[in-house]
Amino acid sequence: MTKWNDSLNVAQINALNQRGGRMLSVVDLLDAGTMDLDLASALCALVARGASFLSGAVPGGAGKTTIMAAILAFLPPDMEISTVDGERVIAGADSAGKPGARRCYLAHEIGAGHWYGYIWGRAVREYLDLARRGHMIATGLHADTLPQLRDILLSPPLGVEEDALATLGFTLFVAADRCGREVRRRVSAVHAGAAADAPALFRWDRRSDRFRREADLDAQVPPAERAALRELLGNLQRQQVRRIEDVRAAYLDSLLRS
Length: 258
Hints:
By secondary structure, the chain is an alpha/beta fold. The protein has one domain: P-loop containing nucleotide triphosphate hydrolases (Rossmann fold). The chain has helices at residues 3-14, 26-32, 37-48, 64-72, 87-91, 122-132, 146-154, 162-165, 223-239, 244-257; strands at residues 53-56, 80-83, 103-106, 109-110, 118-119, 136-141, 170-179, 182-191, 200-205, 210-213. The strands form two sheets. It has an eight-stranded mixed β-sheet, with helices on both faces. The longest helix has 17 residues, at 223-239.
């Protein structure tokens, strides 16, 4: 992949920023306790494998878009991002770029607002169909749990078909939990897909403020890949490498050395 293409990917990720300032990276989220190393390495490893995903949280500002952006820094090096800023992007999916090449189609949010990167109605059905056609998709919506997410997607006016959800690699949810005067933002659950019976891979325990692994991850990502990313993330955290473009560059460099 050319340097130009990767700069374009980073620009698409940073364009998710809705609140100004620097877009937070996985290192920032580790320092804030939003996730721990075990959870972060699993999410980044899934994205590195090109897994499609949805992130959910009901309150605005909980962090679903921030987490989506942070883990997209671990996108496969040969995959380009296309932001869905209109139905024409979806319609031209299979003619964009190199013939047969997988792309990551990024929608800022599944929502009815007329903002950049938002999709609604028929566009949502066509967007999710991109995953069935072999592409990667990444987006967020206002849902706190897997049942809420499924109700929004499967019910009118969206009317997504059940089998369109089967191609999702994982779903994650974020909680903004008030603790005294502070608001702690945590990845509250990660599920292996979006089926009604999709097993939880991780859950956050509010009382202990710890993340529990709930299922064997080997079927999703080999242990060696998670271990390599855990080591990389740990090193980046110790070195305080924070900017998304620097985290991305360190990840790509690690692939060249491996």
